[in-house]
Design goal:
- Helix 1 packs across helix 3 (59-70).
- This protein has 15 helices and 25 strands.
- By secondary structure, the chain is an alpha+beta fold.
- It has helices spanning 8-15, 22-31, 59-70, 113-128, 183-189, 191-195, 245-260, 292-299, 305-314, 346-357, 377-391, 405-408, 445-454, 498-511, 549-554, and strands at 3-6, 35-39, 45-48, 81-90, 100-107, 137-143, 159-165, 206-210, 215-218, 222-223, 236-242, 265-272, 277-280, 286-291, 318-323, 330-336, 395-397, 402-403, 439-440, 462-473, 481-492, 516-517, 526-536, 539-547, 561-567.
- A hairpin with a 2-residue loop joins strand 23 and strand 24.
- Strands 4, 5, 6, 7, 8, 9, 10, 11, 12 and 13 form a ten-stranded mixed β-sheet that branches. Strands 17-20-21-25-24-23-22 form a seven-stranded mixed β-sheet.
- Helices cover 27% and strands 27% of the residues.
- The chain folds into four domains: 3-70, Phenylalanyl-tRNA Synthetase, Chain B, domain 1; 81-280, 3-Layer(bba) Sandwich (Phenylalanyl-tRNA Synthetase, Chain B, domain 3); 286-359, 2-Layer Sandwich (Phenylalanyl-tRNA Synthetase, Chain B, domain 1); 377-571, BirA Bifunctional Protein, domain 2 (2-Layer Sandwich), CATH 3.30.930.10.
Length: 572
Amino acid sequence: MPTVDIDPDELRDLTGHDDVGDEELKDDLFGLGLEFEGHTEDGAFELEFAPDRLDRLSVEGVARSLRYQYGDARGVHVPSTNSAEWSITVDDSVPDERPYVTGAVIRDVSLDEDGLDSLIQLQEKLHATMGRKRAKGAIGIHDLTMLKGASATDTDTPTIEYVGVEPDEDRFVPLDSDAELTPAEVLEEHDTGRTYADLVSEYERYPAIYDDIGLFSFPPVINGRRTEVSTESRDLFVEMTGTDQWTIDKMLNIVCYALAARGATIEDVTVQYPDHELVRPDLSTKTKSVPHKRIETILGINLDPNEVVDLAERSGLEATKEDSEDADELVYEFTIPPYRVDVLHPLDVIDDLGRAYGFNELEPEYPDVGTVGGRHERSRLEDAARTQLVGLGFEDLLNFHMISEAENYERLGVSPNADAYGAGEAATIKEPYSEDFTMLRTWVMPSLLMVLERNTHRAYPQHLAEIGFTAAVDKSENTGVTEQRHVGAVLANHDAGYEDAKARLQALARRFDVELETPPTEHPTFISGRTAAVVIDGEEVGVIGEVHPKVLVEHDLEVPVAAFEFELAALQ
């Protein structure tokens, strides 16, 4: 899960609760869904957060949520904005692959070292999550005084221009550099340019932003040194470019709210497209209708209508009561603030109400049904297999079902179209929040190797196993997707080999009284000649072997790894 570093002293200062101790603060943060993961070298809290609450990627956003939780703030707050003095003109030459831009002017912001660090962290975390590593949205923050026309006495509206340029058409000094470089040279010679070169290298023309002085931003790669922000900066120009207007507009809202929390004034910017005009930031609210009965049903408690309104205001929302077509059914219209990008469904609103009420305050109740619950046969089989794996010396794991395409296929040398175990067309997420979780995994081996990769600092041997969910597109299924449980295991040690993995697999097969065969086979993840198919009761259901050195190097593993994986249902 994503993490964010928060200075507890700064958090207390922004909430106005200097008397809250560290342990109490951790409990309060946990109530928001932010889990304490440890301290950084500087003593900051490292917090794991739900990737949907992107407004909490900064200390300002977390402080805002705590103020609602403490009762110091209520309802929807929308900062006022001054009329636009600046505009962004979008030229026809802008690359079709990255046609959208948005922006805002920030006045009178107070940025000390902590504030600047928080702004930089927010920028990078938004890049990594909602911006899809800058591919979908990239943020540029500039010192406004370094842009020509920043003086308020100018009679003409100051304008910057978003254009497309030839790779070697112009030069500028990028951040962390003393030399003037063309955009093409930035991609070849600058560390940041090389990191993000793949985003624009195939474009015929590169995105660029100019003021009257010249080129000062090369999105989504790097800003110019001329407009670099420092603790002395008081007025900022925020611009964002991307492949989707909604995404960059919402990213802009989150940044504007964070800076407004530090006393800044927000000023509109006019965005002039060739065929239409926008005024940004877009701080309009949206609404969700939720019946009272549904709130009570989901939370399992009885609530007075006024209590629902109170819970909404303590969540940073607002609620108005409206009558539905059924006079006996009370319906609320909930107002959602502009920085909330996660509220897509009425259940998201109910989750907020439940947190404001306090999930720990909910008392468990037996369901009012006439049947007696029992273990599903699949669950019994899964528990029995897990028990045997632990008995064979494996540490039991529970990994995420979602993964990225690179982790599932590329890093293991598997092509989605290959005739190999673990291949197959994946069930993908249409609008994922993070590039790390874009699809459902087709097998569990990638997850196990990712754990080994993160555990290279721990002692060996490491024997890990998981019985986990997998899915793949299958048009013969009514849902279009086949779902299975797989048994996967890895043995990492200086002398791990095929025989070690097969011995444990044989012991597992004997326990479940099934016939095991391991005929030789080929698989791109495993070493040729040290790989076999897993055949149980005459049906090929998996693979076993020694992991290929290329895969080990890809995962920074310096010891041999032997592994096997097969379908859990084969043990029945």
